[in-house]
Design goal:
Chains A, B, C, D: InterPro entries: HAD-like_sf (IPR036412), HAD-SF_hydro_IIA (IPR006357), HAD_sf (IPR023214). The structure is a homotetramer. By secondary structure, chain A is of the alpha/beta class. Chain A has helices at about 5-10, 35-45, 60-70, 85-95, 105-115, 145-160, 185-195, 210-220, 235-245, 265-270, and strands at about 5, 15-20, 25, 30, 50-55, 80, 100-105, 120, 135-140, 165, 175, 180-185, 200, 230-235, 250-255, 275-280. The interface of C and D includes residues 155 and 190 of C.
């Protein structure tokens, strides 16, 4: 049987913790109740913490603002590492001056790229007969466009002009309330990729680049080895396998995607083995 | 190199021909030019013909009406075998009295099921809090609903209630003009199936059930063995591999999906080998 | 919760039963205990029965001999429908005189093809520099060859010469004792197909051709509709989804692949819904 | 059309080059002819170079010895970064004292792990009834074991005991002479993973961890940004997409996997776009 440990007893042995966001710190209802006391504990003990999220719909600034607005003032912008940051880095390196990134998503998701000086054009505004300046394409968010029209338009754009395509969030779906889910931009990207037979560039856990980004950030604050870091997540296929592979210890929490009654079966059937299993990341004060 | 034969020299050795529709008899522009003379030839020679189509957006009656309206009076309803017919047969067998089939598609696509006495409810009209009477679900057509809203609604419906799900057209996409394509209902079904991790029932070429349906129809008209039938199609992965597997001879035509300059490479890389390759199914009179 | 019915109460409403073999009639230990009384019951009630098996390692004659040798005299050759029979039919139609089928498998598995007048050559005996007479290839059995040498030889044969490739058993693995499994020829074929990027022709449940073969056999004995037939199997992904799709009623038995404690979860997660669930196919006399 | 540039004109704009090994520096016949003059050029210009290879069959020491033995004295151990190194790092972090890594591969492939103090046991020597000390498993090499026996034994081992499984080379196959290929350990791992339904940990290009390893090594020698590095490879799906994603410039060479006549088609159909295309990495002196 599965041995569940208290998060306090687990985390106190580490100098740095990486937290997944959804299912660990927050849910569709807002912050996980009492999660604030966890951060008070970490501050008290001098344990550093960072948030790793497959989110390209918002900038780290906006993501931080959400936490602060919900009473977690300690989650400042510099604590947040998102797959959207990797997408931005990619375009900063690869895009030639004067060219633009076409995208599927909200204006807000594109705005983040623009703060870095990148030009963007929503799929809605792209003229398929004049693609000279569209050099790359990004899947940013599942909202902000008409799926009937714009998914097909994206397919035909990418048939017309061969370009680097970035999927800035690998998640296939996300929960919208207690019972229901919604297709995420990563799921739509899979559909488009399959129909085109092409190969897109994906950023986000479980890919190592996401963990490397966070590790580099942590190294700016403290001299630390990978196996001195604890990765905390609610999903075996992203947080846990990715953390294990990167050489970190991992804690699966049962407050999100992986239900308590299914955890043992899922670990056995997937072969993805967290170092620890904890009920949640909450440390009651 | 690829040896291309004249369709006349190929077809005259068979008593029965099965035609794929799109790319063989018609295109996005209408009938393939001069295809009418092919049917005059077949009538003259006493060769029987049938049309096999992965189409569940319309009834065989309506499909026939299109041909007749374009001058091919000989394509009567009884000549047409569609994947939609297999879906209808399935529901006639499996659906209990008083229950209904939920669907994604146009009203027209559902109307066909209703002509057989089946009750249907569009996903738009389904109340997720009252699913008692919804017993099965069908993917019928890529039009007639709001993709943003109704694909997610379908996913949550199938999470709420376990039921038989039928994909009445296996095609992933279809051409809408000379250059552009559109996601077909089979592509949307793939997305939903993948997110749910469930297994849907699919009807349409290359599945044997489609060829068996046509073979049974032919047997009503003539006593014939499978290898006395020629399957004519433009797509290696549906018409040709399915025809080969069913024990028929197969002719790949280069008037549709498989471009003349790519045919040899595609045959070699896929390992799907048509008995013959012909430029088109047109027999000039 | 899952409602389990007695097999007697289920089967007596049908005129014809199709049985899967492994997990239903037999296991790695021999016949399922007391299964003989089931056939006595069926004989008494005048219910016809047939055995549908994904097996291409032996001829129907030899398969029958096994049952007879174990005391089930009623399972005569004409009661057995195997995926190997579909493979043989395919080669009888497609192979040109004088040409041979290369194969992976035992001599016994090839011997069956030879009884029908087909020429066969084991991969071990094929000369890659002289392939003129090798027209097709078959995956027949996971035994009878050296995996290290002959899987690679098969790959290079199929790279050298493009030909129709038949996988005569779609199963990926099979149980060899209470705890252990072995890779089946269908699993090895998947490996080869993936490395080549080609598309093989597969015979066996859940493919409709297997059920059509059995249905045609039944029609020789009795005039029957598909929905008057009961398909009995232990595997959701072959017997049950295939039977449902073919328009038959289906009974999942819990004596094989699907363990009693997992059945409800498997049905829910796969979306494959048997008409009935029974503990086993045994009818105590 | 594809614009092919001279490698000299490309490479001279970079401070650091990463080379793929097979198809770039060597082939089944030995060193690529005249590749030595490339390294003389790089030395002259002060351009640093490293070799990134998906190879877990040998230690970096042995890999270096091969180059030195063939006249490339400059490819010293510290220039070589292999997927086997990532596997070793993983086990060093994750394996508890006294425990062992089971493996598929040659004794030589395991010997490398043992030089780091890890205990290893070949699958041939594992007793399935006594697995207490086997904590992890590694796919190291396609040679050194009996595929018929030991692939099945591996499957049953991993069914008996849930453990971290590492695939130390992601390649599916490799060339053994001008015409023929052989299944690589990555292909065998795919087969086993699919049959088990589990998720293994894979090391090797195109995964970011491989490029991060090389980048960290380069940073020890020179202060450099990612986009000042050129990745040179012969395979779009590993070297080029991985290099692009990591933020490096990429050069596809046509001396290996990607044939000159197919390069333009492959780039277009895959959507993987190298920064440059060069005939080979040879710089004639």
């Amino acid at each position: 049987m599965l041995r569940v440990k208290s998060f306090r007893n687990v985390v106190r042995n580490y100098k740095v913790v990486f937290f997944d966001a959804f299912g660990v710190l927050k849910s569709h209802r807002g912050l996980i109740p009492n999660i604030k006391s966890t951060f008070e504990y970490l501050e008290r003990k001098g344990i550093l913490y960072y948030v790793l999220t497959n989110d390209s719909s918002r900038s780290p600034e906006e993501l931080s603002r959400w936490y602060v607005g919900h009473g977690l003032e300690c989650i400042t912008t510099d604590k947040i590492l998102s797959s959207g940051m990797l997408a931005m880095e990619f375009f900063q390196t690869k895009l030639h001056d004067g060219n633009a990134v076409g995208y599927l998503g909200t204006r807000a998701s594109a705005h983040y790229l623009e703060t870095a000086g990148l030009k963007t054009v929503s799929i809605c505004d792209i003229d398929l007969d004049n693609l000279d300046h569209i050099e790359s394409f990004a899947f940013l968010d599942d909202e902000g466009f008409d799926w009937n029209v714009d998914i097909n338009k994206t397919i035909n754009l990418l048939r017309k002009k061969n370009m680097n395509v970035v999927v800035a969030n690998t998640d296939k779906n996300y929960p919208i309330n207690k019972n229901d889910i919604s297709v995420a931009i990563g799921g739509l990207a899979d559909l488009v990729e399959k129909i085109l037979g092409k190969k897109f560039i994906r950023f986000g856990k479980p890919d190592a680049q996401m963990f490397a980004l966070a590790y580099e950030r942590a190294l700016q604050d403290i001299d630390i080895k990978r196996n001195e870091i604890l990765m905390v997540g609610d999903t075996l296929f992203t947080d846990i396998i990715g953390g294990n592979k990167f050489g970190m210890d991992t804690a699966l929490v049962l407050s999100g995607n992986t239900l308590p009654e299914m955890a043992a079966v899922r670990i056995k059937s997937s072969g993805i083995i967290p170092t620890y299993v904890c009920e949640s990341a909450v440390i009651e004060s």
